Amino acid sequence: MKTLIIAVTLAVSATTGIAYAAGATATGVENAAATHLDQTAPGASAQPRTRAQVRAELVQAEKSGQLANLNRMFYQGGN
């Protein structure tokens, strides 16, 4: 039983790595979103953002179309 669990775990790990590598070519919107959300990015503030700051970023993303594009790509399977 342990051998089966180990084999399945290794197969899932290998498949995940391949899928991640295949999706490594990100569009500009994905790059912007990843950079924006990555708190370890250079120049990122160490302080947590306030609710007002997050709300302002949400409004800006809605106006620029980033939010609609991300929703289309991640929740509706668009390319």
Question: Can you characterise this structure?
Answer:
The chain contains four helices and no strands. With 79 residues, it is an all-alpha fold. It is elongated, with a radius of gyration of 18 Å. The chain starts with a helix and ends with a helix. The mean pLDDT is 74.
Q: What does the secondary structure layout of this molecule look like, with pairings?
A:
Blueprint: H1 2-22, H2 28-37, H3 51-64, H4 66-75
Work out the radius of gyration.
18 Å
Low-pLDDT residue spans:
none
- The percent of residues in helical segments reads 55-70%
Overall pLDDT, averaged? 74
For the sheet with most strands, the description reads: none
The percentage of residues in β strands lies in: under 5%
What is the overall silhouette? elongated
Terminus-to-terminus distance: 40 Å
Helix/strand/pairing class, anyone?
mainly alpha
Give the helix tally.
4
> Could you state the order of secondary-structure elements as H and E?
HHHH
Number of strands: 0
Organism: Paraburkholderia gardini
Keywords: Signal
Protein name: DUF4148 domain-containing protein
Pfam families: DUF4148
What's the short story on this structure?
The protein is mainly alpha-helical.
Features:
79 residues, mainly alpha
